[in-house]
Amino acid sequence: MLKYIAFRNFIFKETFIMRLFFLLLLLPFLASAKIDIALQSQLLQMAEVDQAVRKKLSDAGWHDASEELRNKVITIDKQNTLKLKALLSGRTWFTKSEVGEDGMSAAFLIVQHSADYKFKEKMLPLLKKSYTNGEGITGQEVALLTDRIRINKGQKQLYGTQADISTGKVIFEPIENPDTVDSRRARMKMPSLALYKKLLEKMYGLKEHPDIDLD
After folding, report:
1. pLDDT tens for residues 128-146?
2. Does the predicted model carry a pTM greater than 0.70?
3. 157: which strand partners?
């Protein structure tokens, strides 16, 4: 019996030592995986400025906003693009482990609103990779950027994310192979185009759609 107890104690000690050894090996990686608060804060602050000025633009009305306010949006987009490029100096893109999901979304927002389409195109494959690897970029964000780039190049959009509501109706920009757009949207974990249209109509007050809750 004593031999059995001694053997159990030996196994316990050996297991504990092995666990401690592996924990010590992992410590440097765990430390390096901590969120970079300073970097995250910069991204969030840029996104906050972006959203604040766009809320003013939305409140004023897309067509009734002053030229000064419109120019301010353009200026902020340029400033944010330059700041983001500076933060990306020496790296390709960010990771969820260093800036968190909020930081990743903030970085995407700056890319999406940038007027520098060469920069957008450069970032697109990196964002696709980030989405594939589960690094905090959503399929919808990849789709939004993809469609904006294609439309800017005079091509048809793939996912139907871009629409014109200036006439009081949701008019989608031309879509490549519209019969299969819902399949492409599904792959990016997005709702059907018909549901998306209803969401836009309710969001912009074009139709009621009481069956849809935006909250």
Report:
1. 999 999 999 999 999 999 9
2. yes
3. 175
